[in-house]
Design brief:
The protein is mainly alpha-helical and about 230 residues long. The protein is about 90% helix and about 0% strand. The longest helix is centred in the last third of the chain and has 58 residues.
Length: about 230
């Protein structure tokens, strides 16, 4: 019975490892399938009622879709927070060289190829063509980017443009604050990493190490008892 229990424990650990790998593969395949279906749905331009009924008939698709949307939103937010200090510094240097705000803003969108630059380029094109005012475009841009640092930048720029206040030093200060905030969040994630590693360590690595160390001893005791 002891040998059987030992073998069952080893099989259970192997099953846990295989289950985790299979779950990750399942998530990847589900993400690829959802992306293909979204592309087909957009290409075919189906009515919204059909899309809603198909989502309700597939709760797994809804669950994985929401999961990947949350991950993508977090990834974009981290990208915005990382690129925002460079954006503010480029705008500040452009205005220090004699450019207007729109020209300095366009300089950043032309020189950088980041998600933040793409969003800024879209909004800048809208208000330069006269489709919306600069105030409306900046507010909608801050709503789309949806990070506190950019919202602070947008409100400060609109207030400075309204009253004619100098913005070079203001933008430099905002860039330093955004960089400090981004660094603090990265340090917080690094500090949380050991805590997150406790669960896989205790569930997978520790049982395997115990089997590796205690396995030969247990087998020798079973041979002597037999």
């Amino acid at each position: 019975m002891s040998t059987t229990a030992f073998l069952m424990l080893a099989s259970f650990c192997a099953f846990c490892c295989v289950a985790l790998v299979s779950f990750e593969l399942l998530l990847i395949r589900a993400k690829e399938r959802i992306q293909r279906e979204n592309r087909k749905r957009l290409g075919a331009m189906r009515p919204s009622t059909q899309v809603g009924s198909s989502v309700q008939s597939n709760p797994q698709r809804l669950f994985f879709g929401n999961l990947f949307k949350k991950r993508e939103k977090k990834r974009l937010a981290a990208s915005f927070e990382r690129d925002l200090p460079a954006c503010l510094e480029v705008i500040a240097l452009g205005m220090q060289a004699g450019m207007g705000f729109d020209q300095a803003f366009a300089l950043y969108t032309q020189r950088f190829n980041t998600p933040l630059a793409q969003h800024c380029c879209e909004s800048l094109t809208v208000w330069q063509k006269g489709l919306k005012s600069r105030d409306e475009g900046m507010r909608e841009l801050s709503d789309r980017i949806d990070i506190p640092a950019f919202r602070h930048f947008s409100s400060s720029v609109l207030r400075a443009l309204c009253f004619g206040a100098p913005m070079t030093q203001l933008l430099m200060d905002l860039a330093q604050e955004a960089r400090k905030e981004y660094r603090a969040k990265r340090q917080e994630l690094v500090a949380k990493a050991p805590v997150k590693m406790l669960l896989p360590t205790g569930a997978l690595i520790l049982p395997a190490m115990l089997l590796l160390v205690l396995g030969p001893i247990i087998l020798d005791l079973l041979r002597k008892m037999g």
